[in-house]
Amino acid sequence: MKTLVVGANGQIGRHVTQLLKEAGNHEAVAMIRSEEQKDYFESKGIQTTVADLLDSVESLKQTVEGFDAIIFTAGSGPKTGADMTLRVDLDGATKMIKAAEVAGVNRFLMVSAFQANNRENWNEKIAHYYVAKHFADEELKRSKLAYTIVKPGGLINDPGTAKIKIGSKDIIERGTVSREDVARVLVACLDKKSTEYKSFDLISGDQGVEDALDQL
Amino acid sequence: MKTLVVGANGQIGRHVTQLLKEAGNHEAVAMIRSEEQKDYFESKGIQTTVADLLDSVESLKQTVEGFDAIIFTAGSGPKTGADMTLRVDLDGATKMIKAAEVAGVNRFLMVSAFQANNRENWNEKIAHYYVAKHFADEELKRSKLAYTIVKPGGLINDPGTAKIKIGSKDIIERGTVSREDVARVLVACLDKKSTEYKSFDLISGDQGVEDALDQL
Prior knowledge:
2 copies of one chain form a homodimer. Chain A has helices at residues 11-23, 38-42, 57-64, 82-103, 127-142, 179-191, 209-214, and strands at residues 2-6, 27-32, 47-50, 69-72, 107-111, 146-152, 154-156, 163-167, 176-178, 198-204, 207-208. Chain A is an alpha/beta fold and 216 residues long. The first copy, chain A, has a single domain (2-214), classed as Rossmann fold (3-Layer(aba) Sandwich), CATH 3.40.50. In chain A, the strands form 2 sheets. Chain A has a 9-stranded mixed β-sheet with strand order 3-2-1-4-5-6-10-8-11, with helices on both faces. Chain A contains 7 helices and 11 strands. The radius of gyration of chain A is 16 Å and the shape is globular. The longest helix of chain A has 22 residues, at 82-103. In chain A, helix 2 links the parallel strand 2 (27-32) and strand 3 (47-50). In chain A, helix 1 (11-23) crosses helix 6, helix 3 crosses helix 4 and helix 4 packs parallel to helix 5. The A-B interface holds A 56-57, 81-87, 90-91, 94-95, 119-120, 127-128, 131-132, 134-135 and B 56-57, 81-87, 90-91, 94-95, 119-120, 127-128, 131-132, 134-135. Chains A, B: Pfam families: NAD_binding_10 (PF13460). Chains A, B: This is SDR family oxidoreductase.
């Protein structure tokens, strides 16, 4: 599948593009915000396209045209203010969803946050971040796209183990998960039609990625 | 109608409770965040109820039970960060909408912002505020409530003139409007069934409130 990685220059995004490149069965394009981010991807033989989540739906539609899938790993991050969380994590994601709909991109994988769907389980210190993720997820669920919403626990930079635990119907315990494993799960979801229209929490665990996803 | 004014202690909210009190045909209750805000309203003979938009839907449901209408004039304001814009203006409004639905409160009047429905017309400097208002409005439109969304231009503290201009189908020019006139329009909408399921921009103009609303 021709897959656009949004937020490709982020930590999870870089893992995703790398894993897609290694897998070889998909054509991955990194959506980057500026030409300066190009070198990193070109040195790895990964194509890029320049676009900004602050752009209009119309402009983003042109970016996503011709793709089969979008992996949304973008976030304004903790270095900018909550105003950018609103504009990127919520409104940017929503514009991408609309752009995908009008451009006929059917598949949309979203990186959300652990228990973003349950207000009572939000981390009070970054509750505003959960608001943004929650509303973006709801927008995606209401869309006509074949979505998968991956809601990872605390993100860490340790190397991935490819061993995970997922929770969909039941709420699992809070935990951490390496960004590499989040990326691995996203790439696995792209290949697994049974993950469409699904939403699940993700922490590190002791189950193989394929096995865990098969139980969704 | 038994009407709950959410954000009653805000500038528009105070005008709304005052006008409802003067009109006399509705029972107005001011929703306030703390006991300290009580004196202002009690001195004017206006009932109060203490609740916080950071509370759960379940808790807010108990607050809104028995009301016929909600006028939502709350906003975290420019003194707090955009994190509170997310939590109050967006998530707080959404929780109130859900609470109204489960409690069987049918009528919901929302104070939004001029052209909140059109991204291309957002004020770039406070675009995050427009994101919050836009998503809250969308949430309300998708609800089963009889909504009216009032989208005022630049808010000023001048005394109201009761002369306005509204735009619904066509986009009108940008302008200002006094908070008192916004409150006057909200109270008029409460009495006018034809304003249900309507959304309109509002600036000061030269038309009487009733006449303008009749043209919706």
